[in-house]
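Hypothesis: this fold can be encoded by more than one sequence.
Test: take the structure tokens below, design a sequence, compare later.
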């Protein structure tokens, strides 16, 4: 692989590390939730999201100048945007706590956020292997592993939203938490989309 080609894979590794940082911070916010400090939490999360934007812009700049790329330019661009989407969606989850003026955290939301951390951790492993995907013995099993985490998130989404609609007597609270769980589900889906895209790229290039 040409020396310049390493940039793309290093950018992906850095981007997914930022996604993991955002997911970990979401867990921290929920475990130590204080509605009076939501502005501070949003500001710190936005800093993390901005650092992800920087990585996306760096990728865009490199692709605009590149004559030859290690894999299709469109695939590099798609992966970069999908990784950025993960961070954007995690930030949007935290924003929902502000929008809906949430005062108390549902324990299932913390469990869900921890699953998103797990998904991001697996994505870190996948991106660590991606540069040498033709020789990697682990990348396919990691993609399957991430799919398993996403399925756990699907089950948690169903059980959490069912419990919410059965037990809540406050309509606004019910609607608010339904939106939050939808946001968490979108985060897990976004992680899976990245891994699926990696799988497709591997099939096209082997």
């Amino acid at each position: 692989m040409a020396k310049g080609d390493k940039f793309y894979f290093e950018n992906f590794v850095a981007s997914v590390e930022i996604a993991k940082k955002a997911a970990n911070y979401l867990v921290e916010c929920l475990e130590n939730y204080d509605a009076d400090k939501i502005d501070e939490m949003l500001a710190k999360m936005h800093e993390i999201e901005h650092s992800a934007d920087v990585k996306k812009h760096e990728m865009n700049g490199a692709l605009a100048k590149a004559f030859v790329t290690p894999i299709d330019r469109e695939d590099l661009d798609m992966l970069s945007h999908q990784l950025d989407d993960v961070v954007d969606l995690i930030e949007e989850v935290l924003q929902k706590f502000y929008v809906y003026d949430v005062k108390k955290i549902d324990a299932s939301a913390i469990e869900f956020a921890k699953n998103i951390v797990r998904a991001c951790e697996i994505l870190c492993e996948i991106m660590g292997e991606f540069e040498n995907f033709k020789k990697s013995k682990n990348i396919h099993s990691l993609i399957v592993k991430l799919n398993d985490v996403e399925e756990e998130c699907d089950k948690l989404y169903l059980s959490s939203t069912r419990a919410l609609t059965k037990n809540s007597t406050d309509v606004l609270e019910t609607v608010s938490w339904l939106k939050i769980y939808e946001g968490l589900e979108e985060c897990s889906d976004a992680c899976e989309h990245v891994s699926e895209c990696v799988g497709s790229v591997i099939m096209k290039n082997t």
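The first helix runs from residue 6 to 31. The CA atoms of residues 29 and 37 lie 10 Å apart.
Hypothesis status: open.
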